Amino acid sequence: MKKELIRKSKYLSLVLRHKPEAAGISLDANGWAEVDTLLRGALVNGVNISLAELLEIVVTNEKQRFVLDEDKKRIRANQGHSVEVDLGLKECEPPALLFHGTTERFSTAILSTGLNKMQRHHVHLSADTETAHKVGMRRGKVVIFAVDAEQMRRDGFRFYQSGNGVWLADSVPAGYLRFHSPEDKNTESDG
Ligand code: HQG
Question: Is the CB of 109 under 6 A from ligand 1?
Fold first, then answer.
């Protein structure tokens, strides 16, 4: 994606996940914003996004962060919110192992209190270590945890999948975590 579009995409993430007020708008209970209102609000706040650019961002975003409704009049973020919205996520059965990438400096805390959702609605997990690695890299030296999703399910924990395929959980207690070393046998991506 072009640099300029990436900048606009980041702004849309900010507005649609965390700070709708940055574009002078509010989201409905399910996280939707009217496209017209959003683009007008963004412009007033100094960010000029054309309708064509917005559509291009939705289609080409490498993580499919945004989705339009059927008549393309409303847009929302698929996941990652800190503002209170109900995405209507359905419970799904995860693969036996899921992964979480983070940074070394958080690992002691994580091993003692488990994975917590922090500012977001859920703990974010992936089915492959490659994605976990990318997520962890954002913060420094990467550490990947393997999550025993199979045992968690048996113990009654719920999992959800966002519209763009991110696995979500309310929390992961430390007992279901172990360090994943690159030599370990992996699922899909390395297999
Ligand atoms: C850590 C991006 C200390 C957790 C990414 C993470 C992802 C703890 C940070 C998506 C902890 C929260 C989500 C504990 C968790 N003690 N630290 N007990 N429990 N943490 O950004 O998973 O580009 O909210 O390990 O690519 O890093 O925005 O979560 O490091 O998919 O679409 O607390 O955000 O996607 O950070 O990233 P985040 P995340 P987008």
Answer: yes
